Each structure stands twice: as C-alpha cells, then as structure tokens.
Amino acid sequence: MRKTLILKVDCENPDGEKIDLAAEAIRRGGLVAFPTETVYGLGADALNPKAVREIYAVKMRPPDNPIIVHIAVKDDVYRLAESVPRYAERLMDLFWPGPLTLVLKASGIVPKVTTGGLDTVAIRMPKHKVALALIKASETPIAAPSANLAGRPSPTVAEHVIQDLYGRIDVIIDAGPTSIGVESTVLDLTSDPPQILRPGGATYEDLRKALGKVDIHPSALAKSELPIERARSPGMKHKHYAPKAEMILVEGDFSLIVGKIMELAEHYAKAGRKVGVLATDESAPNYKVGVIKSLGNRRDLSLAAKNLFKTLREFDEEGVDLIIAEGLPQEGLGLAIMNRLRRAAGYNIITLG
Ligand code: TXA
Ligand code: MG
Which regions in the chain score pLDDT beneath 50? Predict the structure, then answer.
C-alpha cells in the first residue's frame, strides 16, 4: 500500500504550494489524480515510460488502450505531433482549453507506452485551473486516463477516486465536482473527413459547424459491440463505465419507455432481484418498484451528463443488482450520455417505437 496524500484546493484559485507538491510527485515519476472540467484524471509524466507504465498497472488497464496527453500551452502540440494540419489549428483555437481531444500522428518524443503502441497521439488542453496549474508546474505534458479502475464509471468527484485508487497512487487533488461530467470528445484527425471516435463534452453539432464535415465512428454510437478489427480507438473494445449491477437500457419513444420500465421493474422485483431504475424528473413519479434515481429534467442534458457517473456509483452503494435505465435524446451532450449508457449496459438494449 502506497501513502496517498489528499490535497484539497480551491477550483478557481488553487493554492500554489499544494500544486507544487503534486507537480514534484509528477516530476519524480509518481501518479497524481487531478480534476479536469470533464472527469478526474490519473496523471503521470507523459514522456516518462516508467511512470506511464504505472498508470496501466494501478488502473488495471489493458496495455493496448492509449492514454490522452494533457497540455497547458498550444506550442506543446508541435513537439508531440509530427504534423499539425491547418484545421487542427482552427479546432485548437475554437475548442481549447476544453473537452476536445485531437488524435494526430505522434512525434518521436512520445513513448510507445503512452500511445498504446499506436503511431498516433491523443492530445487535449483541459479547461480547469487546477489541471492547467499542475501541468505548468510539472513542466511536462501529463498523460492521464480517467482516474477510475478500468471498466468502472469515471470519477466526477475526488471521493470516487478515493474509492478506486486510494493507497495505490501518490496524490489526489480534490477541487470538488467536475463541471461537465462525461469525458472529452476524441476526434481522429488522421482520417479524412475527421472522425469522432468517442462522443464527449464537445458536441457533434459544434464540430460539424467548425469543420463542415465530420464522421461518427460506428462504435461512438455504441448501438452494439463491434468486431475487434473495426475498433479504431482501442478503448472502444473494452468493457466500460460499468456499475457492478447488471444493466438494461430501454430507449426509443419516451411514452413507450416508461410503461416498459414499469413492467420490467415489477417483473424482476417479483423474481427476487434488487432493482434500480435510472429515471428522469418527468418519469420518476410513475415508478413504484425498486430504488429510483433521477438524472434530472430530460431537457437539461448538461445536468444529466453531470449526474450520470455519480448516479451509477450510487446504485452500487445501495446494493442494487439490476439497473433498468431510461434512454435520453441523442442530440448535443445526449450522444455522449447514450454512448456511456449503452456501454454501461453491455449493449443490453431494448429499443421501442
Ligand atoms: O475527458 C477526458 O478525456 C478524460 C480526462 C481525464 O481528460 N480522460 C479520459 O481518458 O477519458 P481515458 O483514458 O479514460 O479515455 C481515453 C480514450 C480511450 O477511449 C482511448 O482509447 C482513446 O481516448 N485514445 C487515446 N489515445 C488514442 C489514440 N492515439 N488513437 C485513438 N484513440 C485514442
Ligand atoms: Mg476512462
């Protein structure tokens, strides 16, 4: 067991001394969990292969799943990427700092362990004062996957990081809840047109406005499991976001969803299952059976995104063994939410209407 230092800092005005302590750990090759605007990340010096190897070990992450490199100044892109197309610069100007990760051809300075053996590197500049201060003070780009054990829902508060990683990493910086709640959008700029590999905080609609044309990889929709050879982003093929409970996602026409979930909840409760229902404010009063939790108003997708991972973890804490979840609209942040729900359900999906 490692000694884990927990540092509480203000998210708007982080204490420089505490940031320096954490940055020292990064420079020594240690592991530091830190907040970003999307989810908490588990950071190590991206250019130190030994330190990055530790991330995989601690998270129990499959070694072929590459890690995003976080930077605080745009100039670092030109060191980490072999070439930077013009439209990449436009995207950096429009979306950074923010929840957009760009996949580019990697330069020779990026260790193979960071890219999971690929010849591309994923780069993003987070929009969070603590993350940016940590990267600057560390004087190196920081490789960071989400700070959860592989397969579990991503952490949106420091408490989730403590649940999964306390005693295995050096520092946890606690700056309160993250603001977006789902991870960044991963956009592959090595394909033409650019392709969304994972939907996230930067929406398809905004990217299309900026680029004119953008593709969505089939796995980003996550309607069903893809054969391994079609999984462009290696993270696509691994189990993800999963609560301990089994999960069924019911999607399609909202008026039909509610009735179906009522029926399923009753059926499984009678069969002796401890049922949880992942609902919304509009539907919650209809459900009478099981542990009912709402993601908020159906029209407020940013609130649903913020609540999503936290709520999945809460069902586990209540000892629920089957979660029946309502699908949400797929526009805006809804695309990222539905991707997470479908994968959390292990593609156990009922489509109505
Ligand atoms: O918002 C986020 O992106 C958070 C915060 C901490 O920045 N990070 C995060 O990292 O979600 P992770 O490791 O949980 O997810 C990274 C995703 C994975 O699906 C991985 O396969 C993909 O990005 N990825 C990383 N490098 C890639 C590359 N070179 N080519 C294709 N996909 C890549
Ligand atoms: Mg992750």
Answer: 228-229
